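hey m, so remember when u said the tokens were messed up on ur end? i reran from scratch. heres the input so u can diff it against urs
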Amino acid sequence: MTETSAQKPKSGWINVLVDYGPLLVFFLTYRHFRPEGDDPAGEIFAVIRGTGAFIVAAIAALAISKVRLGKVSPMLWLSTVLIVGFGGLTIFFADPVFVQLKPTIIYLAFGVVLLVGYARGKALLKTLLEAAFEGLSDEGWMKLSRNWGLFFLVLAALNETLRLTLDFGDWLAAKLWVFLPLSFLFTFTQLPMLLRHGLAAEEKDEEISNPPPTG
């Protein structure tokens, strides 16, 4: 084992906690305060409580990333800013649509940025992930950027479809039980391509356990 690999932190599960922990806090808080039966006022109260917990958890996740990992990724910065911004609007206007729009904006932004970069011959995902995948060739980074760009656009369309067809509680459950498994499944499908393009074999477990955030 080289000195570099010995010093590299095994942070896959910390990253997963940082990326998806706030969403789990949001889900559990909302479920705890969600009223039984048809109670619009109680539903809004639960959404506001859940959103407040979401904001606090997102800020805490950012701090944990800085302290435990020594860095805050561009993706996490953007996600936290949008959570605080749209979460604040949700609380101020007592309207859950703002927090539901946040994922769509993130997915669209990353999808467009990655695909525009790919069209210009730039693998922007390499910059966003800060060269996390040791040994991956430039061609591998280009393909990964293209594939994640397309996947983010699919997630944006899926989020809007679910937002318009489900009530808030079911939409929130889908964020946890549909989007998260899809993200890990898609990440797993990229592994053969990554290995063909030079990803170090010892990196593959971290790659599976730490996909780009889709929260």
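this time it looks ok to me. The two ends are 35 Å apart (CA to CA). if urs says something different then somethings off w ur setup not the seq
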